[in-house]
Amino acid sequence: MEILYREIKEEDILTQKKEILELFKLLFEEDKKREKISEMYYENMSKFCKDGSAILLGAFCKNVLVGFHWAYEINWGGGRNGYTVIS
Asked: pTM above 0.70?
């Protein structure tokens, strides 16, 4: 099984929505609100990808997203802070 690592593009976020949501659900599997949280994170990922404020790297197997690393900057408390989500 060959894994291809590459940048996740806007079109990937649309075509791989089901896979992204499943990966978020795994990440938040202990949380009772994981469905809602996963949707929220998906929407943020889409927004940050569109505006260029995120770095999204994906692992693809046979053109299906099987994992990702997501990093973006947030403004919090008057300063810029790095925040990373890994799935």
From this structure: yes
